[in-house]
Amino acid sequence: MTSRERFLACMNYQPVDRVPLRPTFGAWPETLERWANEGSNEPNAPTFQTDQWDWFGGWFFPNPPFEREVVEEDAETILYINKEGILMRELKNHPHSSMPQFVRFPVQTRDDFRRFWKERMNPDIAARVGADWKEKLSAYRERDVPLIIIADRWGGFFGPIRNMTGVEHLCTLFYDEPALVEEMMDATADFIIAMMDQILDVTDIDVFGFWEDMAYKTASLLSPEMARKYMLPRYRRVVDFVRSRGVELISLDSDGDVSDLIPVWLDAGINVLYPFEAQAGMDVLEVRKEYGRDLRMWYGVDKRVLASGKEAIDAELERIRPLVEDGGYVPGTDHSLPPDVSYENYCYYMERFLDIYGS
Predict the structure, then answer these.
(1) Same domain, 71 and 184
(2) What is the pairing mode between strands 296-298 and 272-274?
(3) How many folded domains does the chain comprise?
(4) Same structural domain, 200 and 73
(5) Is 23 helix (H, G, I), strand (E, B) or coil?
(6) With CB atoms counted within 10 Å of each terminal CB, which end of the chain scores lower, N or C?
(7) Nearest to 13 by CA among 354, 358, 329
(8) Rounded to an integer, what is the distance from CA 66 to the centroid of its chain?
């Protein structure tokens, strides 16, 4: 089977020669630095064959991006405006190991939003993908790998708005200015549909995905009742559109404990979720028991076991085996690997994963 045939069969609970091999969600830069010091760059370092997915998401970011502007810096930190217009303070030493301090967001008022959207969220696909976008995308009609279009960080109805306003401000806007929230959500839906309309004119795709990141360790950042009232109708608009154009798999990416939001997403027509963070209490086996085969899942392997040693790795891979065998599930770590994972443990995990699921 090709990677695409295998992926689609797995997602549709059909027989496969083996599960799609996507063992990790990537690794932090600091982790890669550690592995390099432990031998990952040596000529005799092992290589691991996995399935290729063609995955695009950056096309949905604000365009043109904001110019990076350093406001101040000292020996340890730097305060700057990032490409999304957020004023943020980061540690200079390994910024990926800690959360930045978000100082100011680009949208504080309705006028700010309308200016931001007019200037930076035009669905001009040539400006976003390249002047040769039609040729580039039409070539995918002959692909043998899955084509996944994720509206990364700017395709959803909480996460992208949070990127403009900040979490606290957005949460209060639902009560103080609900009409503004709805205006921002409608604009986002219009933007996604306009982008996907152009993409689907020249190629078919296998998955369209939303991005939200709207939960933390113990709960969602918005109640399911509010998500159902405000977000579900906008999801439905986008889902109905892409499905009318032949896209059957609709995914959503959100970290944290999303237990309360799953029914809302299912009712919206979303049928693939990831990454199911174990440290936030998300258990892919329990989710399958509760929601059955209507919900496909990616990842959910507890990344912390890779720091715990070989026995923990073996136990975790054995734990998820029933779900792999049931189908509709692509196993892999529940997020990027942090620097407490040694190169030796990473190699052991990859070898065991490919040994168990690669044949």
Answers:
(1) no
(2) parallel
(3) 2
(4) no
(5) coil
(6) C
(7) 329
(8) 22
